[in-house]
Amino acid sequence: MLLLYFPLQSWAWNWRTRVSLSVKQQPLSEVCRQLGKTYGIQFSYSRDVVRMSQMVDVDVRNVSLKRLMELVFDENGVEYKRIGEQIVLTAKKKEQRTISGYAEDAITGEKLIGVTVYSPLLQVGTVSNQYGFYSLTTKRDTLTLIATYIGYEPVMISLKDKSSRQLKVQLKPSNTLKQVEVTESAPKLQDQTQMSRISIPLSQVKTMPKLLGEEDVLRTMMAMPGVSGGRDGVSGMNVRGGSPEQNLVLLDGTPVYNPSHLFGIYSVFHPDLVKNVELYKGAFPARYGGRLSSVTDVSLKDGDMHKYRWEASAGLLSGKFIVEGPIWKNKTSFVLTGRRSLADLYMQPFVEKNLDVGDNGEFGVMFYDANIKINHIFSPRDRLFISAYGGQDNMKLLTDKEYNDSFGDKSYQEMLNFRLGWGNQIYSLRWNHLYNPRLFSNLTASFSQYFFLTDYRYKYESFRVPEKDNLFGKYYSRTQNGSLKLDYDYRPHPNHVVRFGLQGAYHIFEPGITQFSSQENDVYDTAYNKEKPGGLELSMYAEDDWRISDSLHLNLGLHISAFMIFPEWYRSVQPRLGFRYMLPRNWAMKWTYTKMVQYIHLLSNNSTYLPTDLWVPVTDKVRPMISNQVALGLAKTSKDKQYELSLEAYYKTMQNVIEYEEQAGNFQSATKSWDEKVVIGQGSSYGFELLAQKKAGRTQATVGYTLSRSRRSFPNINNGKIFPYKYDHLHDLELMLSHRFEKNWELSANWMYMSGMPLTLASASYEPAPGSSPYDPPLLPGSGQVDYVGDRNTLRTMDQHRLDLSVSYNWQRKKFDYSMNMSVYNVYNRKNPFYYYYKYDENMGRRDLTQFTLLPVLPSLTFSIRAK
């Protein structure tokens, strides 16, 4: 330690001694030297403790020594104390304070998720949580903070006092043509500990390609690497080799069991209501549990607190509206939306003609949904949210046809009446409470219900032989979930973000089937599975996002859960671990390990593509599904923050996955003893993902590529051999591009390519010997042969690819904003397969493999109007 002393003059001094001093851009050591030389004041300090190189400007005349010390040393973080005849200088202890509050849209009062609040001097910051709350603990002498958010103008916040306090951060939407404002303090991809995560805020939702007239959250998610939607017209996401029921979809924290409309063309999320979307493909934070493959967390807008607004649009396929505004200005707001398909109102005759449903036939497909949400502020510490959602899909097909033989005489008559429907109902009540500037809580009570119904009636009558058939069947399922969840968000220090909480949920499962058939005097009437089993699920979690140093960040978490279905208890401990280490040239290396457990199963027939959703709980024979996933990746954001690149490789194993037995189908297996009709096996998936994005400027682009494999094995299926899972495809490529022109024009395009998916078909046929087993496949139409089916999924469907285009024109008037959008789905009318079947050609006397395509080229024109 080096001590410096200045000579003590012969005269005495005290704090009231009058002094004069003038220095300009000189170090603190020069101030001490001049005071010592002129007034004989001795200073003692250590250069290892006090930074005396700090430059100061001082120009005072005839002031007290005490006042001069305040001006020079207090403002530069130096403490001073008289000991004897010398002044001892030490570094001032940095007291801390916490600045917290809510980040919101300055115009509407909407709380913003993911706003970065940053101290440029200390180079530390925080991000607002799912409810817009942020908390940043800094040194007491921090004078300036900067807040940034994608699509909003950055704001500089001056802190006039040095006490801890609540501070509302208000950001204004950017009105420039740059769709994303890039700022120096915006978070970079390599700074985030989390990997396998995709986040889309409100401003980016609006810039997504408008396919079929509107943006769609799930469709955009399916364009990301590691995520696919399967065949055209099939609802549900497949993430990293998993099946749709392994995805947890949350709407404001409440689970949604089927998030699709119209076989996956639209999602249940009204695009104008979505505020933020986060997708986790792996590296799941500890606060999530209950599914194996992914978590999609959708947050909805709260409603404008200051002004009434509305928007409406109508197109060839659907119409929708949204209304929002204050009930009690600055205290209570609401938002209401509604949406309905329109194509069924005018396209029905055209579709029926092409489907050849007969003179009395009928075909129709439609959907509708509605949301309402109320937001009330009791105090700066307490907020209440009430929300509800309801939606439904319906499809009906009625055919009534007569067939003639080659002589023109009536041969037989056939009638089919088929109906398919599904829907969701969701209700939630949430209470936000702020205990202190560092501790925030959210209490959520929610109820979710999903139902599925298929019924059919088939009649057949021959005019040539005395033969009649009369079949009726009903296939239905209902799942209910009521839960209470308490989450805490604690931010003791900028280097730590701690989250913990607990949840209790009760599940009710109601799968069932009713079958009736009548063939002359033979009557068969059966009702399956009238029981309503219920299961209680309990969970608790804790996680810490810990910044150990500038180079090393850790995310440590633990999720503990239990599921009780009388009289059995199933328990699990699920660790979550992730770390990020900075490599040279600002590349971030990330590694994660995640264990997930799922206590509910979906009975799904491997040979059908319809949403036959029968949710069932675990049993003593069918245990919970378990997955273990590891991922390794690299990530980087360019210096100008316009470009992002991430590379990830993953490997996932799954235990206790189920499949129907070879001879079982949905109608034979959805019984009280369904667990005796399924087999239990294992699965694995691995792959490589690349995501490159240009996120700023008039032109934005996304390239997502996945190279992957997904496998399953079951003791009693495929002779115990490993086979490709039905969602396995080697290559998946998605290209998205959007460009905004000078004069209110916007163009977007999306091109997808996916290699063929596994398929099982007959590989040979043979003549059955007399007295063959009754379990032999049925005779082929018009022949005495039966099919022989070899190994499972040894064939592949055709590769799929499709181009979608969208052009929008926007213009403004004094009171309203207008928009016209023209989009084309499947521009070059690619006939992607929906399913394959054998069709017997009577004239040629042979069977042909026939492909059925569900979605051809679909043009759409949509007009929107929005009140300012």
Automatic annotation (TrEMBL):
InterPro entries: Beta-barrel_TonB_sf, CarboxyPept-like_regulatory, Plug_dom, Plug_dom_sf, TonB-dep_rcpt-like. It is found in: Cell outer membrane. It is a multi-pass membrane protein. Residues 216-291 form the TonB-dependent receptor plug domain. It comes from the Bacteria. Gene3D superfamilies: 3.55.50.30, Carboxypeptidase-like, regulatory domain, TonB-dependent receptor, beta-barrel domain, TonB-dependent receptor, plug domain. SUPFAM superfamilies: Carboxypeptidase regulatory domain-like, Porins. Keywords: Cell outer membrane, Membrane, Receptor, Signal, Transmembrane, Transmembrane beta strand, Transport. Signal peptide: none annotated. PANTHER family: HEMOGLOBIN AND HEMOGLOBIN-HAPTOGLOBIN-BINDING PROTEIN 1-RELATED, TONB-DEPENDENT OUTER MEMBRANE RECEPTOR. This is TonB-dependent receptor. It comes from Chitinophaga horti.
